[in-house]
Automatic annotation (TrEMBL):
<comment type="subunit">
    <text>Acetyl-CoA carboxylase is a heterohexamer of biotin carboxyl carrier protein, biotin carboxylase and the two subunits of carboxyl transferase in a 2:2 complex.</text>
</comment>
<dbReference type="InterPro" id="IPR005482">
    <property type="entry name" value="Biotin_COase_C"/>
</dbReference>
<dbReference type="InterPro" id="IPR011764">
    <property type="entry name" value="Biotin_carboxylation_dom"/>
</dbReference>
<keyword id="KW-0067">ATP-binding</keyword>
<dbReference type="InterPro" id="IPR013815">
    <property type="entry name" value="ATP_grasp_subdomain_1"/>
</dbReference>
<feature type="domain" description="ATP-grasp">
    <location>
        <begin position="120"/>
        <end position="316"/>
    </location>
</feature>
<keyword id="KW-0460">Magnesium</keyword>
<dbReference type="Pfam" id="PF02786">
    <property type="entry name" value="CPSase_L_D2"/>
</dbReference>
<keyword id="KW-0436">Ligase</keyword>
<dbReference type="InterPro" id="IPR005479">
    <property type="entry name" value="CPAse_ATP-bd"/>
</dbReference>
<keyword id="KW-0275">Fatty acid biosynthesis</keyword>
<comment type="pathway">
    <text>Lipid metabolism; malonyl-CoA biosynthesis; malonyl-CoA from acetyl-CoA: step 1/1.</text>
</comment>
<protein>
    <recommendedName>
        <fullName>Biotin carboxylase</fullName>
        <ecNumber>6.3.4.14</ecNumber>
    </recommendedName>
</protein>
<keyword id="KW-0092">Biotin</keyword>
<dbReference type="InterPro" id="IPR004549">
    <property type="entry name" value="Acetyl_CoA_COase_biotin_COase"/>
</dbReference>
<dbReference type="Pfam" id="PF00289">
    <property type="entry name" value="Biotin_carb_N"/>
</dbReference>
<dbReference type="InterPro" id="IPR016185">
    <property type="entry name" value="PreATP-grasp_dom_sf"/>
</dbReference>
Amino acid sequence: MFSKILIANRGEIALRILRACKELGIPTVAVHSTADADAMHVRLADESVCIGPPAARESYLNIPQLLAACEITGADAVHPGYGFLSENARFAEILEAHNIEFIGPTAEHIRIMGDKIQAKQTARDLGIPVVPGSDGAVTSSDDAHAIAREIGYPVLVKAASGGGGRGMKVAKSEADLDTALSTARSEAAAAFGDDALYMEKYLGKPRHIEIQVLGDGKGNAVHLGERDCSLQRRHQKVLEEAPSPSLNAEQRSQIGEIVANAMRKLKYRGVGTVEFLYENGEFYFIEMNTRLQVEHPVTEMITGIDLVNEQIRIAAGGSLDMTQEDISFEGHAIECRINAEDPVNFTPSPGTITYYHPPGGLGVRVDSGVYQGYKIPPYYDSLIGKLIVHGRNRVECMMRLRRCLDEFVVDEIKSTIPLFRDLVDNQDIANGQYDIHWLEKHLENKS
Ligand code: ADP
C-alpha cells in the first residue's frame, strides 16, 4: 500500500478522498492555493502544502509545484479527484517518470478517451453502440454538408477536445451549418487550444444515462449499474439518480455487460464512466470519463461500494476483488448539486456562510467542504456541496429528499437549494418523466 497520498484537488472532493485515505490508514497531504488556506480538507489532512496563488493555472494545475509538494512530503501517490489534472495524460506520465503513482487509468487510456473522435472510434471497435455521425474529424464545409445530408438534420457540431458542454452547436438545417461550424471552431480553439470538430445526429428527447465501471488493469472489470443524469442546465448536470426510472433490470444488465466487456478487452484500470444518450430504447455512446465523477455517490449508495477506496487499492496493484454476481443494487439514490448561485438566474454568489445546518438522519449523506464561517472564494466552480439521499424505493427517496431540503440551511449566500425544493414537488419529476431538455424548458416556463 502507499505510504502517503497527495490529494491534488480542493473542495468537497478533496475531503471525500481524504476520508477514504483515513479509513485505509494512509497519511494524507493536502495542497492548496493561497485562497484555500482555510479549507476543511487542509485542516483535516496530516500535512499541507501551499502550491501557489488563487488562479488554478498557477496552483491546482501547476505540475512543477505539485511534483515539488510530493518531493517535500515524500508522497508516493497522487489522487487527482475530478476536474483540474484528473484527465491530463501528461501529468500521469510525469508522475510515473518520478516513481509516483497516479491514482487513475493509464496515460494511454486517458489520452484515447480525452479525444472524443478517437474515443468514439475505440468505443465502436469495442462493441459499444455510438451516435450516428461523422467518421472522424470534419475537415471542410463541403464535407460537413455531405455528412449532415446523410445523417439528417438537426445535427450537432462538437469539439474533439470538448468538455463542460463547450464548443457544441446545433444546426437545425442546412442554412445554420456553416455558422455552427465556425462558432464551434472558434469556441473550441479558445477553450481547449484544439479546433478539431466532429458531427453527430442531434437527438431530440434523449435521457443521459451513464454506466459506472471498475477495472483492475489486468483484464478484470465490472459495471456498477447506471446513473440517470438527464436533469441538466446548459449541458451541466444538476440532479442525478440511480437506478434510472426508465430502465428495467434486463436493459440494465444488457448495456452493463456490453460496457464491462469492452473494459475487459481494453484492460481498463480504475474507475470510469461510459456516457450514453438513451432514446426510444436505444443507447448511443457520447463519451467516456476516465476519472471519478461528481455524481459517484449515488452509485455508492445503491451498491455499498466505496469507489475511492477501490481506486486506491487498484492503483496500489490490487486485483478486482468482486465479480459481477457479487454486485447488487439496493433501493434508490438521488444527488442534488448544491451550488453557490442565485436559484433563479444562476449567477455565482460567493461570500461568507454565516449559518450552516446540513440535514442528517437515516439514508442521508452530505459531501461538502464548507462550514459555518467559511468564505467561498470567487476563483473556482460554484459547487459547495452535494446532498445524496437513499431510500428503499424511489418514493421513499423523494420523500426523504424533500425532508432534507427543508432542513438544509446555508445562510447568507444564495444557493440552488430552492430550485431543488421546487423540483421535488414537480409531477414530471415524481413520475421520473424527464429528458435532457426538461429542466431548461421548466425554467423558461417559470420565468
Ligand atoms: P461534454 O464533454 O462537453 O460534457 P458530452 O458529449 O458529454 O459533452 O455531452 C454533454 C451533453 O450534451 C449531453 O449530456 C447531452 O445533454 C448533450 N448532447 C451531447 N451529444 C448530443 C447529441 N448527439 N444529441 C443531443 N444532445 C447531445
